[in-house]
Hints:
alpha/beta, Lysozyme-like, 2 domains, six-stranded mixed β-sheet, 8 helices, 30% helix, globular, binds zinc ion
Amino acid sequence: MHDPDGPVDSPVQLPISHRWRSPNFTERRGTDRPDMVVLHYTAMESCEAAAERLCDPQFEVSAHYLIAENGDIHQLVDEMARAWHAGRGSWGNVTDVNSHSIGIELANTGFHPFPEPQMAALETLLADILRRHDIAPERVIGHSDMAPGRKSDPGSRFDWKRLAHKHLSVWPTDAPTNTPLSSFPNLATCFGYPNDAAQDDILNAFRLRFRPNASGPLAKQDVAILASLVARYPIDPPAGDA
Ligand SMILES: [Zn+2]
């Protein structure tokens, strides 16, 4: 494991470009370290266009990292600072997601697959971030997870299962399908989804990530998968019996 007294501010093992630096950040509030990671896509035509926007003070947006389609990793904001990528939303009891997270933007129009070099770079960067900040895989989420109905990135083409296979996110196991449909809202809250979001918006966010080919009304399979996730990764684990 990493040396707790060693540098945590920036990755030292990875080729990181500092070609673009963003002025759009403040200090973290209520915490001095990131304890979650939020993944995004840029929804812009090119990495360069996204970088310019993320570094332009007039747009008041940023992210800690921007990964190009070719796998180049650009660091725009230091990890210990509060970048402006998450906006309104929540995950579990975290309502100021920017203060608690590291934001990673993937250059992507929103309509294209994520190229292999970009995914490989993301995996390398994520593994490094999770190790250095001791962040659990279940705390790597999509922008759509914390802002259902408002955001849909990184979208249905993003390969969450691949990340989970490398312990960089989570994926459900086979689950019994006898969980009642009525338990969906409670399970969604127990996994981390905002408890003030509309159920349809949560269902859409959930399917974007875990059932990208599903459509139609809430189904037994949705509830079964969510129950499987909650059983292994509850957002607020109950205190164990001593
Ligand atoms: Zn986003």
